[in-house]
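pasting for ref
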Amino acid sequence: MHSFGLRRQIRSVKSTAKITRAQELIATSRIVKAQERVKSSRPYASRSAGAVGAGQLNSGINHPLLKERTDVKRTAVLVITSDRGFCGGYNSNVIREAESLIKKLRDEGKEPVPYVVGSKGRSVRFRDREIAGQWSGFSDRPGFDDAERIGRRLAADFLREAEEEGRSVRSTWSTPSSSPC
């Protein structure tokens, strides 16, 4: 009687291990697909950046988002993690790199301001720093709307700080009216 219960428990553990392994494989394939989408968007991003730079030079636009700054005191750090587990070392590697970057920025005398995408990164407080912005729920299928919402928040925070520092800001960008979370 006792050995029957033990055999059943062994089968149950083996079954759970198989399910977990299958979920890890699915998550890994999703990460690979996401990385491929990012890689395929690089030429577009590069050309867009070039077009914006050329437009700025030729039009004489004077906007804080288009100016290179040397007097940087605060720096946004965008940390992109997943919403679920089973991503191998992805989340831990991203968080480790973010912490390393934050330490480097502090050593340079700058104040890092973390923004986190993905629920796995929300639990990390980056050495007792408050997270300035958080988004989650779309990491397995991120879309343009998600990226636009994050980009608008980062730009709005940058422009608000530029105004607080007394730099003139003329912006035609609209800012989000509600919290991103």
